[in-house]
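cron nightly-structures :: item 1 of 1
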Amino acid sequence: MQKIKNLACLLVFSLLLFSCGEYQKVLNKGSIEDQYKMAVKMYESKKYSKALRLFEKVKPAYRGKPQMERIQFMVAQSNFNEKSYATAGFYFDRWEGFESPVELE
């Protein structure tokens, strides 16, 4: 029984180690496209702080490209989910697809 517990712990530890390693590898040495894909993957996995680090690295490369609107939204939403409401508000204001529910006169 003890061997099964040890094997299960080793398996869980290995999975955690490899998943962190992939993120670090892409963050530090990945191409812009790989960083973008990993950022989206982290966002969809609700790992918002990791997604934000990657999005900050790729934003300059996507300026003026169609993906930028999606990046702006995911950065704003990630900040909101991380409870950085002021930062989220800033990015939502800059997001081109955002329409205020309140009409300003």
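cron nightly-structures :: done
Residues 93 and 100 are 9 Å apart (CA to CA).
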